[in-house]
Amino acid sequence: MDLEGFCFRIGYRFNDPDLLRRALTHRSYGAAHNERLEYLGDSVLNCAIALELYHKFPQLTEGELSRLRASLVNQQSLCAAAQQFNFGDEILLGEGEIKSGGFRRPSILADAVEAVVGAALLDGGFDTARSVVRTLFAEALATVDPQTTGKDPKTLLQEYLQGRRIALPRYTVVATRGEAHEHVFQVECVIPDLNIRSLGEGSSRRNAEQIAARKAYELAICE
């Protein structure tokens, strides 16, 4: 566990390193785990994202803002943030979770993001926690689009391809990991006409397909 390196990545140095360590400790590792911090961080994250959207989109209604927030505060987006900032390299896991690839499991990664936000609140107050959220979700906040919110990535990709008379993508499960009750699916999305291949991982085949579709859509619109 490299707490110094992690603090550098998220742009905040904790006054209490033990608090950060707890935030990055899964319950499988020991009694001093991150579930209470996760509970706290969930509320703070929703509030911080709501504030960012409120100021970014002054023309949107309450319902539209709520849909935008839901598109940003969910397991998929939290997992994406965790992957971007290499949370998996720092999370402390029990031996069983290590063997089953828990450091890649979306639910564990998403929970760790919430826990770190909760820890930042306790360590430095709301403004500190909000700053951490801004860092972790900078890319998502910069690219969020009110015109497409509410549409899942597979639908967006399908509509984009149909509008350009391009054959629809193929989704294939290329790997599964983990115990029977906690499978992690890896799905490949292929668009032959655009020479695009993308991979997504999720706790269900559907979630993995959505993540793969989102990556493919981002590649397609840059073509």
Question: Which terms summarize this structure?
Answer:
223 residues; Ribonuclease iii, N-terminal Endonuclease Domain, Chain A; 2 domains; three-stranded antiparallel beta sheet
Describe this structure in words.
By secondary structure, the protein is mostly helical. The chain has 2 domains: 141 residues, Ribonuclease III domain (Ribonuclease iii, N-terminal Endonuclease Domain, Chain A), CATH 1.10.1520.10; 68 residues, Double Stranded RNA Binding Domain (2-Layer Sandwich). The chain contains 11 helices and 3 strands, in the order ααααααααααβββα. The chain has a 3-stranded antiparallel β-sheet. A hairpin with a 6-residue loop joins β1 and β2. The longest helix is centred in the N-terminal third of the chain and has 22 residues. The protein is globular, with a radius of gyration of 18 Å.
Write a concise synopsis of the structure shown.
The protein is mainly alpha-helical and 223 residues long.
**CATH homologous group name of the largest domain:** Ribonuclease III domain
The gyration radius over C-alpha positions equals: 18 Å
Query: Per the principal axes of the C-alpha atoms, what is the gross shape?
Result: globular
* Sequence of strands across the biggest β-sheet: 1-2-3
The CATH topology annotation of the largest domain reads as: Ribonuclease iii, N-terminal Endonuclease Domain, Chain A
Largest sheet: 3 strands, antiparallel
Q: What is the highest CATH level, the class of the largest domain? A: Mainly Alpha
- Put simply, the count of helices is 11
Helix content: 55-70%
**Count of β-strands:** 3
Cα distance spanning the termini = 39 Å
Label the structural class: mainly alpha
Order of helices and strands: HHHHHHHHHHEEEH
CATH architectural type of the largest domain: Orthogonal Bundle
Q: Looking at the chains present, what oligomeric state does this protein adopt?
A: single chain
Overall pLDDT, averaged? Answer: 91
> Number of folding domains?
2
**How much strand content do the residues show?**
5-15%
Model regions low in confidence, pLDDT < 50 over at least 5 residues: none
